[in-house]
Amino acid sequence: MDIKYTDFAVDQTMALLNIPSPTGYTWQAAEYVQKAFEQLGFSAGLTRKGGVLADLGGSDAEDAVLLEAHADTLGGMVAEIKGNGRLRITPLGGLNANNAEAENVCVIARGGKTFEGTFQLNNASVHVNSEYNDTRRSFDSMEVVLDHATASEAETRALGIEVGDIVSFDPRARVTAEGYIKSRFLDDKLSVGILLGLAKYLSDNGITPRRRVYAHVTVYEEVGHGGSASVPEGVTEAISVDMGCVGDGLRCTERQVSLCAKDSGGPYSYEVLQKLIDAAQREGADYAVDVYPHYGSDVEATLRAGHDIGHGLIGAGVYASHGYERSHRDGVRNTLLVLKGYLGV
Question: Does residue 221 carry a catalytic annotation?
Fold first, then answer.
């Protein structure tokens, strides 16, 4: 597979990373993904939940494959407008207050107007707060400080901000000269970029897979039900393309593709995992098989919804999940190679 498909996947990832899409506010990202598939010549539509379902073609519609990735990210929601005009927020998904401290944010009001601010510890000045070092960081001890002249609840409400508004965190996305991809929310926009890279490979080369292939870009994965619906008729296997875990006790690095044998939801299909291993070996992909201690995926939501399918999980290695994450272009390429081999294209 030509390196240009890795380049395309990374470019699509970078574009997506800069579109705010915390769980519950994903329409802009979904529209971008839908149009990207359509521009590559594939039929794609929005699901009722707001995700994107694309048909990548294939001859055998009775033995179809569903590839799942998610465009929703961690984020926040305004839970209270405080008396000092600042905002207490509640997390969307598994956002951790510890590693979100001092991050720039954008508050998205119901009318679409946006307001910049920063997520800070309450009384965040070290020269003033003698308890700064000892204060436990939580969503009760931290607040959004708006970049507007507001010092009361009434003044903040007058701006147009209300409880329930979305808070998006700055991804700080960049690609280094050494090929490392660094950003918040590589989980899982990197995999959406990879699916678009696969789609471009199929389109450019006029390839019709033997098995029908669908791509479902979900929008509620971070709260557990992203892949629970919109499974096309005839699907017999589903692969969740999500981040591969990197950390103590695991073999995978950011430059590899991870094939998951088991996570917190239990083992993945032994037969599907073997197919993925065989595909990696045939294509010469650099891979690792790992067991993830704290993880759940779209395809597990698909199974829990009652669908009778085989299931697997792969992804480019990502370090520092749910924080400021890092992967590598090599991990993207190795993931594309496994998908190519698994689909036989």
Answer: yes
Q: Which phi-psi region, left, alpha or beta, contains residue 314 (left: φ > 0; alpha: ψ -120 to 50)? A: beta
User: What is the sign of the dihedral through the CA atoms of 93, 48, 197 and 311?
Assistant: positive
How many Å apart are CA 269 and CA 178, to the nearest integer?
A: 36
* Residue 255: φ, ψ to 5°: -95, 0
Choosing from 143, 221, 237, 325, the catalytic residue is 221
What are the distances in angstroms from CA 223 to CA 18, 41, 59, 95? 21, 31, 34, 11
Return the SS3 of 310.
Answer: strand
Q: What is the tens place of the pLDDT at every residue in 54-78? A: 999 999 999 999 999 999 999 999 9
d(CA 328, CA 256): 8
pLDDT tens digit sequence for 13-46: 999 999 999 999 999 999 999 999 999 999 999 9
Cβ pair 92, 63 in contact under 8 A = no
